[in-house]
């Protein structure tokens, strides 16, 4: 299927299931990116299954809603999109903020989720200092725009040794993001709940992935999630920072393919 738009979210919807046992793969991007961050995964996995990748509200081609966008609002948007597409059960993957949205989705509608992929993310609620930092950053983005921030954080999002084309793609995504959308998400994310207890009650297989050189969500965060989840696999991807799906797509896709095969086998 071609790139298209729902009544609210823009999204890619590509590929079709190899069998009835093959659930769609839903990919949730991080901040401040858009659905093109999943290009290597959409290309690889749409050959054998349906792959759906939305732009979250305030990002990419989706509408900007100024103010505050809490994680439950993102999750409700995703549920509404999947309802409109006739998708019942699915595997849900998210990176960074997208991973936290995945956790919120599982909190809201666990019966629809066949498997969880949590990449370069963490489940804890925001600290008081973190809330102040996110609020200040929201104010800065509204005042200055995205470029200065993008220049500052590029080589934490990807490793300093990352492929130049990958770094350029990441920088383009950040500078193309609406400051109003990014600020609304920052304010909402600052008020997120603590998902650590939720992880102990997850009843589906989970994959935890992290770049070995991720400074935002270090390997220790991934190890803690792996320990909390009843049925999980942990993969640390060498020579990658916060975006291993773009920095090391072959390794990321190999890991994701093995996980999806396991989910498919469970039926």
CATH architecture: 3-Layer(aba) Sandwich
Order of helices and strands: EEEHEHEHEHHHHHEHEHH
Helix/strand class = alpha/beta
CATH topology: Rossmann fold
Low-confidence stretches: 1-6
Query: How far do the termini sit from each other?
Result: 25 Å
Q: For the report, how would you describe the main beta sheet?
A: 8 strands, mixed
Q: Which CATH class is shown?
A: Alpha Beta
Query: Radius of gyration from the CA trace?
Result: 17 Å
| Integer count of domains | 1
GO cellular component, one term: membrane
Pfam family, one: Abhydrolase_6
Protein name: Alpha/beta fold hydrolase
GO molecular function: hydrolase activity
Task: Please write out the topology.
Blueprint: E1 4-5, E2 10-14, E3 25-28, H1 39-45, E4 51-54, H2 71-84, E5 90-95, H3 97-108, E6 113-119, H4 128-144, H5 147-157, H6 164-176, H7 179-190, H8 196-199, E7 206-211, H9 219-228, E8 232-237, H10 244-247, H11 249-266
Parallel strand pairs: 3-4, 3-5, 5-6, 6-7, 7-8
Antiparallel strand pairs: 1-2, 2-4
Helix pairs in contact: 2-3, 4-7, 5-6
Tell me what you see in this structure.
It comes from Streptomyces sp. R21. One of its GO terms (cellular component) is membrane. By secondary structure, the protein is an alpha/beta fold. It has a single domain (4-266), classed as 3-Layer(aba) Sandwich (Rossmann fold). It is built from eleven helices and eight strands. It has an eight-stranded mixed β-sheet with strand order 1-2-4-3-5-6-7-8, with helices on both faces. Helix 2 packs across helix 3 (97-108) and helix 4 (128-144) runs antiparallel to helix 7 (179-190). The protein starts with a strand and ends with a helix. Residues 1-6 have low confidence and may be disordered.
